[in-house]
Design brief:
By secondary structure, the chain is of the alpha/beta class. It folds into 3 domains: 4-159, no CATH class; 163-256, no CATH class; 266-320, no CATH class. It has helices at residues 4-17, 21-27, 29-36, 38-41, 54-61, 101-116, 163-167, 172-185, 190-206, 211-224, 229-246, 253-279, 284-291, 295-304, 311-320; strands at residues 51-52, 73-78, 84-92, 120-126, 137-141, 146-150, 152-155. A 5-stranded mixed sheet has the order 1-2-3-4-7, with helices on both faces. The chain has a two-stranded antiparallel ribbon with strand order 5-6. Strand 2 and strand 3 form a beta hairpin. Helix 9 (190-206) runs antiparallel to helix 10. The longest helix has 27 residues, at 253-279. Pfam families: DUF4351. It comes from Nostoc sphaeroides CCNUC1. This is DUF4351 domain-containing protein. Residues 260-318 form the DUF4351 domain.
């Protein structure tokens, strides 16, 4: 059985390459703004539709410095006064502080203004475990030129002392924050993680949430609160029993199996995209070889590709790690 170090490494790798944050923010964007940034929330006319500007974001991100990008969202909303407003929401999931982060926030903000002639409100959700790292501005100061750029940021770690408030909140992001905090706190205790995972999912039913909300939040909790395989199987058996007692079988065995397959297919697609950015276009043959890799092999490749600089690196890795 994998030890907890393996479990956490898998979680870290999963968080590095993909995260459920983008999905959950898209599903509950108004609730996210109300929960994390109430002052900005109050500016917005929520009766009018908001729009995720994926193509516009890619135009400014494509030219940004190379590095990891997590759940960045550029969103067009409308102010109560009737004016268009753009929001750049960034979720930072680095395990350690990133010295270049404030500059990157400024760079993205400036590029939006330069390319689209639109000011943007820049907001950051910080998921790291460093209590001292609290970036909020980028500045430089010379005799005749001065710049100070400030951006909004919240630290999930600060909610540790407000856990009772989270438990009493019906905002979906209270559940998201609780899952994140308990994942951090149970790094060396998979048994405790299993207990909290079950408790948080049971809470969704206790809140009386609808089926789609339970599915959405279940996916987030299940993704971040990864367990060793044996404990995961125990959890799933206990969860099935719980649903049968509630007569609410929202997450069926068949769906669970399909979800596991979906996660592997998602890993394959993500690794392929990352490889193409690192080493260039993949031939159909290489794509098929990647599809033949197991989930564990995909995760190993995901970590290794951070050091790839040419197609030869990928070919050597595949030769050394042949699928079985």
């Amino acid at each position: 059985m994998n030890n907890d170090s393996d479990v956490y490494d898998g979680l870290r790798l999963r968080a590095d390459f993909d995260s459920p944050w983008k999905e959950i923010i898209e599903a509950y964007f108004p609730q996210a703004m109300h929960f994390f940034f109430p002052e900005t929330f109050a500016l917005i006319d929520w009766e009018r539709p908001y729009e995720f500007l994926d193509k516009e974001f890619q135009q400014i991100a494509r030219e940004a410095e190379q590095g990891k990008r997590y759940a960045d969202q550029l969103v067009k909303v409308w102010q109560i006064q009737g004016e268009e407003l753009w929001l750049l929401v960034h979720v930072e999931i680095q395990a350690q502080k990133e010295d270049n982060f404030p500059k990157r926030m400024f760079t993205y903000n400036f590029r939006i203004f330069d390319r689209f002639d639109r000011p943007a409100i820049s907001l950051a959700i910080l998921c790291d475990s460093n209590r001292e790292w609290r970036p909020s501005n980028y500045s430089y100061n010379y005799p005749n030129t001065r710049l100070t750029f400030e951006f909004g940021s919240i630290k999930l770690l600060d909610y540790e002392n407000r856990f009772h408030e989270l438990e009493n909140s019906d905002n979906p992001f209270a559940t998201v924050v609780m899952a994140h905090l308990k994942t951090q706190q149970t790094r060396s205790s998979p048994e405790q993680r299993k207990i909290w995972k079950f408790s948080l999912i049971r809470r969704l039913y206790d809140l009386g949430l609808g089926e789609q909300d339970i599915r959405n939040l279940y996916r987030f909790i299940d993704w971040v609160m990864i367990l060793p395989k044996a404990l995961e199987n125990q959890f799933w058996e206990e969860f099935k029993q719980f649903e049968q007692e509630r007569i609410m079988r929202y997450i069926t065995t068949g769906e669970r199996i399909g979800y596991e397959r979906g996660k592997q297919e998602g890993e394959q697609q993500l690794i392929s995209r990352l490889l193409q950015r690192r080493v260039g276009e993949l031939s159909p043959e290489l794509q098929e070889r990647i599809k033949s890799l197991s989930l564990n092999q995909l995760e190993t490749l995901g970590e290794a590709l951070l050091d790839f600089t040419a197609m030869e690196d990928l070919l050597n890795w595949l030769q050394t790690n042949k699928s079985t």
